[in-house]
Amino acid sequence: MKKIFGGINLTWKKLIMFSILAGVYTAIMAILPITSNTSFRDITVSFEVWILFGIIIIMNSKSAKDSALKCFVFFLISQPLIYLLQVPFSWQGWGLFNYYRYWFIWTVACIPMGFIGYYMKKNKWWSAFILIPMLFFLGNHYRLYLGETLFNFPYHLLSTLFCAITMIIYPVFIFKDKKPKMIALIASILILAFMSVFSLLNKTIYNTIVLVSDEEKIVFDDSYKVYLEDNKYGNVKIVYDDNLEDYRVDAEFEKAGKTKVILEDANGNKTIYNIDIKRDSFDLKKE
Predict the structure, then answer these.
(1) pLDDT tens digits, residue range 222-255?
(2) CA 104 remoteness from chain centre
(3) Strand order in the sheet with 246-253
(4) Helix (H/G/I), strand (E/B), else coil: 264
(5) 105 Cβ contact list (under 8 Å, min separation 6)
(6) 232-239, long-range: CB < 8 A, 24+ apart
(7) Which residue among 109, 215, 258, 287 is least enclosed by CB atoms within 10 Å?
(8) What DSSP assignment string belongs to 48-102?
């Protein structure tokens, strides 16, 4: 591990090969259908793995200028390559490059971040405060992934663990001196604790419309009751939709899984639907 954080002779040739491999791997993860909504796909849209790549480059650079240039070139090669390789496999074709504008801003930002980041290698007490903003950034990723994992276990569990583990690894292996190491490590632990509690208290919610009153299928109004067979999955309610000029069943799902949606009229007659709740979709079938 120590070799990764400062023991590599990072030549320009190695850097370019590194950027190509990172781009190819990420494109493959974006293309393969089996990776959809898993931790393996997260590298295509999120920062946690790219933060690791950036820190590896910074810690193996020879100067602040070298660090800034190598971080910039790494992202300048890898990011467009990801989109280029996806073009033949995407319905958007070359339109995919519209998303690159966002990543290009971050690529340019790599110049000052790589330059400033190099001074973590000075191992002064203030060096920890160069890393801490990145720890907060990673902590927010951890919070989001933890929420996704709690909603639909074990999806995004690997990304959740990756964020938490790297937040501990960085202070331990970036800094040699005790003072910056302890400052950054304490910051990581506090951030992880705060984000964990926040995720537990603020659950990930999937808001959607489950049913709409329809004369051809089913008719209901606010005299009906609606509920889930198992309320651990969330809650449902009947509301009036002014645009439709009719009633609908709204849902706030807190967990993925299978349960039943039960509509009950004033006489106790029930219409039951089996529902399979996913992260951002559901399958509904009348029983």
Answers:
(1) 999 999 999 999 999 999 999 888 999 999 999 9
(2) 19
(3) 206-212, 246-253, 234-241
(4) strand
(5) none
(6) 233/257, 233/259, 233/277, 234/205, 234/206, 236/210, 236/261
(7) 215
(8) HHHHHHHHHHHHT-SSHHHHHHHHHHHHHHHHHHHHHHHGGG-TTGGGGGGGHHH
